[in-house]
Write a structure and sequence with these properties.
single chain; Penicillin V Acylase, Chain A; eight-stranded antiparallel beta sheet; six-stranded antiparallel beta sheet; about 30% strand; binds taurocholic acid; EC 3.5.1.24; lipid metabolism; CBAH/NAAA_C; choloylglycine hydrolase
Length: about 325
């Protein structure tokens, strides 16, 4: 399972948890402006916006899972198994392979408004990257500081939904995820008052009782509600440290611990990494299951006019700061 979220303080933040039972070999990868983006069915882009994100690099191609561009637009792909469906190549549309979707949007669009324009003529096609890396069944969150959308390519066509809550998990399709929030409209960060019966002397005996009923399990439907509640009620200072810290706490509400979600005998899905991008400033913060310390890569510390990918392997292993030795 995975969860993606947006957050706005002084700057705009965008990130996700990547939950899975193994890693493909992820690296924080910067695609500079002159890296030649080759696409399978449309012309190459020689000059484009610079991108930073988490990717598996294969044959010098950045297979992004989530990323932002230098204009402050963010995008993340999350599993949508059983619902995602991609088309065959068609005429008079932009035929973009599923693995090219993030590069296609982030290399050319400075905002969600511009992304919507490209989405009008896109056809997400079923061309696999390679035999070893077949199609991934995904849906996507695309956001800038003003708005957020969900994109789902299904057997009945491409759906582009306004995403007012700024979060995404996995199945079921987005409209059903949003609908279930109706079931939780009574939840509140405030203490409840007794509306059950005025004849009964009921007492709010513990803090946090306004959220009683918030689902605590790891299913994607439950994570959607939990992270939505956490995000919309989230309160933090505006500084970079306060915002980044709060963002990791928001996604911490849906963190997956090894042992709680068995995918088969002896194999468990865990939160492999959590990312938080400052999309305004082009900084990619992350921590991993094995390393809770926040590490960061700043795209503006690199030569963004270059034509070569820059990759940073993830820093693993807990970094513990002893206070008395
Ligand atoms: C496994 C990842 C999604 C994690 C997730 O959503 N887990 C939820 C599991 S569940 O539904 O709830 O069961 C997805 C997100 C991005 C995907 C990668 C990107 O799409 C980039 C390429 C695309 C290639 O087609 C396949 C390899 C790949 C490198 C993908 C591997 C894998 O499918 C990734 C890493």
């Amino acid at each position: 399972m995975c969860t993606a979220a947006t957050y706005k303080t002084k700057d705009f933040y965008f990130g996700r948890t990547l939950d899975y039972e193994f890693s493909y070999g992820d690296q924080v990868t910067i695609t500079p402006r002159s890296f030649p983006f080759h696409f399978r069915h449309v012309s190459e882009l020689k000059n484009h916006y610079a991108i930073i994100g988490m990717a598996h690099v294969a044959g010098n191609y950045p297979l992004y899972y989530d990323a932002i561009n230098e204009k402050g637009l963010g995008m993340a792909g999350l599993n949508f198994v059983g619902n995602a469906s991609y088309s065959d190549v068609q005429s008079e549309v932009d035929n973009i392979a599923q693995f090219e979707f993030i590069p296609w949007i982030l290399s050319q669009c400075s905002s969600v408004t511009e992304a919507r324009e490209l989405l009008h003529r896109i056809n997400i096609v079923n061309t696999p990257f390679s035999e070893q890396l077949p199609l991934a069944q995904l849906h996507w969150l695309i956001a800038d500081e003003k708005e957020c959308i969900t994109v789902e390519s299904m057997s009945d066509g491409l759906h582009v939904y306004d995403n007012q809550v700024g979060v995404l998990t996995n199945n079921p399709p987005f409209p059903q995820q949003m609908f279930q929030l109706n079931n939780y409209m009574h939840l509140s960060p405030k203490q409840p008052v007794n509306t059950f019966s005025s004849d009964l002397n009921l007492n709010a005996y513990s803090r946090g009782m306004g959220g009683l009923g918030l689902p605590g399990d790891l299913s994607s439907a439950s994570r959607f509600v939990r992270v939505a509640f956490t995000k919309v009620n989230s309160f933090s200072g505006e500084s970079e440290m306060e915002s980044v810290s709060q963002f990791f706490h928001i996604l911490g509400s849906v963190d997956q611990q090894r042992g709680c979600c068995q995918v088969f005998d002896g194999k468990y899905e865990i939160t492999l990494y959590t990312s938080c991008c400052n999309a305004t400033k082009g900084i990619y913060y992350y921590n991993t299951y094995e390393n809770h310390q926040i590490s960061a890569v700043d795209m503006h510390s690199e030569n963004l006019d270059s034509d070569k990918l820059v990759c940073y392997p993830l820093i693993q292993g807990e970094q513990i700061k002893y206070q008395n030795r």
